[in-house]
Task: inverse folding
């Protein structure tokens, strides 16, 4: 099965608000793609447009090379898992999963025995066959989520779309379901897109991540790419924890509060800019040994790292940054240390 | 123009269907007894009124209900059976009585089934779509509740009467609306329109459109979505609305009285016949018919309680 999704120049407005601003995207066969962004970034709207639950003002959507906008949601053969599951509350789990099979046109509808077999197969797949006689209100959040997925898979969808699949679950269940979804995807290999605002979820589950903000795509890449080589200031700030310092770039030198830093501008345009450094990418040295200097204010140690709040000396202690350092060099509150960015990015402010 | 000459008779008739309206007499729960802390016996529970005052309030409520609700109901049945059970059934099997019962059932069947369809459509439009003038539409739905039933009837006289807007045209084409079944049906439909729509709108708004969207994405057609997903989700609310609509349709007096013309054996519904018989001093016959309406009210009340319980259960399920 080879199903690709292509979205070209999609524009969607709600009144004066532009939810999607000229968005284009290609999803390859068998991918598990994450749409990642803060709320209001347009990610759910894009998902609903692909499913046929919303219509764009302009643009094209093709699924498997066929124009999708010419068809309604019921004809697109798309599996959609809703954020709050939207299970049919008056039907048992079994009937929920069977729904998509029972509403098929008579000509292609399976007989009762085949429907039962298929539902059983799906409930086995999501490991919940023992719940088939229950009603949705009798299930836990994680169970509802898996039933919603089984229901969507019943129609053998060409693609699978999931809206905040783990959003309404508690942290522990969420972790378990993530891994479960990942292995399920490997098993059934359906081209899938899921929406999330949780970067950890996107980086851990997806094989490609689309970072969105204010109706635009900021970056598309593998989890490694978006984390290590963020394309924009927004992506750097949104994915992973970052230290952000206001700097000035001129003549290839980078200055913080007038004082030059020992780092190259790396071709950044001259003018007011922002220096982005990951918390763990600050090299710690003895006082007087680096570009930046500061006093350790507080240290918390957990696991393999210690997290320190450092008040930078140049800002007269007004700028406080948080850094992560390995435990091999214990930091003390009150200690003066120097800091040197090991890896960093500079974006125009 | 028919007039409401005898106030006493219309009171008896009003009594007969009043309990179906909004008399939500739920008894106060006795939780206070359980919640009482282990205080010294002499100490009064300060969270509630002192005993004598409590007793007084409860007694007042009971006396009020007895005088204004229970007593009239008892009187209706006592008068109906005052000459014995044979006279009661003889009165009910009079051709005029049978004709009134038939007409009332026919009118109720027409107006309930039409309002069922209109109500579902109106509730659907209001709860599932956003459009300009929605608030205005909600206000319009409530109009029949805020207008006096006599005015509601008069509207149809002004439209279809001999001097009305369509009067000449209707006469020319020999179409009878006023003083005939269509007029009575129209007036009843108008008066009972809000019941179904009103009971569905909050329910459908709360449920949203997610389940419908899920059904469509699973390949269901519009009709399949309605009959398999929407309708089962609103069925208890719908039955509730239909029940109240039916009670009002059978009991409606004012609007029907204006458009009926009181043609004996033809355009008299049960409430109208109650008044006519009473005015002719046929008390047994009058109260026999009234007792039927009273029984309808009691049945409605019981079914209403059952449905309300069902609706509450549905609420709990949909809450999480």
Result:
């Amino acid at each position: 099965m080879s199903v690709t999704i292509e979205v070209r120049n999609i524009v969607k407005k709600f009144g004066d608000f532009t939810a999607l601003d000229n968005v284009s995207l290609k999803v390859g066969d068998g991918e598990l793609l994450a749409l990642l962004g803060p709320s209001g970034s347009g990610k759910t709207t894009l998902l609903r447009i692909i499913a046929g639950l919303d219509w764009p003002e302009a643009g094209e959507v093709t699924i498997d090379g066929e124009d999708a906008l010419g068809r309604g949601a019921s004809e697109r053969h798309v599996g959609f898992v809703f954020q709050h599951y939207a299970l049919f509350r008056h039907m048992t789990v079994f009937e929920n999963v069977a729904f998509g099979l029972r509403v098929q046109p008579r000509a292609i509808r399976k007989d009762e025995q085949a429907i039962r077999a298929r539902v059983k197969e799906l409930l086995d797949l999501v490991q919940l066959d023992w719940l088939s006689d229950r009603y949705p209100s009798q299930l836990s959040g994680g169970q509802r989520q898996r039933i919603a997925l089984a229901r969507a898979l019943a129609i053998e969808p060409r693609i699978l779309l999931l809206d905040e699949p783990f959003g309404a679950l508690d942290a522990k269940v969420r972790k378990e379901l993530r891994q479960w979804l990942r292995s399920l995807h490997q098993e059934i290999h359906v081209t899938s897109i899921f929406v999330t605002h949780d970067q950890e979820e996107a980086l851990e589950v997806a094989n490609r991540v689309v970072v969105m903000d204010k109706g635009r795509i900021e970056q598309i890449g593998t989890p490694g790419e978006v984390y290590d080589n963020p394309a924009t200031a927004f992506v750097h700030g949104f994915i992973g924890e970052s230290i952000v310092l206001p700097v000035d770039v001129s003549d290839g030198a980078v200055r913080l509060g007038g004082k030059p830093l020992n780092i190259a501008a790396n071709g950044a345009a001259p003018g007011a800019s922002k220096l982005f450094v990951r918390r763990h990418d600050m090299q710690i040295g003895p006082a007087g040994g680096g570009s930046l200097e500061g006093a350790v204010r507080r240290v918390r140690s957990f696991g393999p790292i210690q997290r320190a709040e450092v008040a930078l000396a140049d800002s007269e202690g007004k700028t406080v940054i948080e850094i992560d350092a390995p435990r091999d060099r214990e930091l003390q509150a009150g200690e003066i240390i120097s800091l040197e960015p090991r890896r960093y990015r500079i974006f125009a402010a | 123009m028919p007039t409401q000459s005898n106030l006493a008779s219309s009171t008896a008739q009003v009594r007969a269907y009043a309990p179906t309206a909004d008399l939500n007499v739920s008894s106060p729960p006795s939780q206070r007894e359980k919640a009482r802390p282990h205080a010294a016996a002499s100490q009064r529970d300060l969270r509630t009124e002192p005993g004598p005052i409590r007793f007084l309030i409860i007694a007042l409520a009971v006396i009020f209900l007895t005088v204004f609700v229970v007593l009239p109901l008892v009187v209706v049945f006592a008068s109906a059976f005052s000459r014995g059970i044979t006279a009661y059934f003889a009165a009910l099997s009079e051709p005029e009585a049978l004709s009134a019962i038939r007409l009332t059932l026919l009118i109720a069947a027409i107006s309930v089934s039409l309002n069922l369809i209109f109500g579902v459509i109106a509730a659907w439009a209001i709860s599932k779509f956003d459009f300009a003038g929605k608030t205005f539409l909600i206000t319009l739905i409530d109009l029949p509740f805020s207008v006096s039933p006599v005015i509601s009837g008069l509207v149809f006289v002004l439209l279809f009467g001999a001097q009305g807007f369509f009067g000449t045209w209707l006469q020319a084409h020999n179409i009878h609306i006023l003083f005939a079944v269509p007029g009575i049906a129209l007036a009843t439909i108008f008066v009972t329109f809000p019941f179904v729509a009103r009971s569905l709108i909050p329910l459908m708004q709360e449920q949203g459109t997610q389940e419908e969207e899920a059904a469509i994405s699973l390949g269901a057609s519009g009709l399949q979505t309605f009959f398999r997903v929407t309708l089962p989700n609103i069925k208890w609310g719908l039955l509730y609305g239909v029940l109240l609509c039916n009670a009002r349709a059978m009991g409606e007096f004012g609007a029907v009285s204006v458009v009926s013309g009181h043609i004996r054996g033809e355009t008299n519904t049960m409430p109208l016949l109650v008044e006519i018989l009473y005015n002719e001093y046929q008390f047994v016959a009058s109260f026999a018919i009234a007792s039927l309406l009273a029984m309808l009210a009691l049945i409605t009340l019981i079914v209403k309680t059952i449905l309300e319980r069902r609706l509450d259960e549905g609420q709990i399920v949909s809450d999480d």
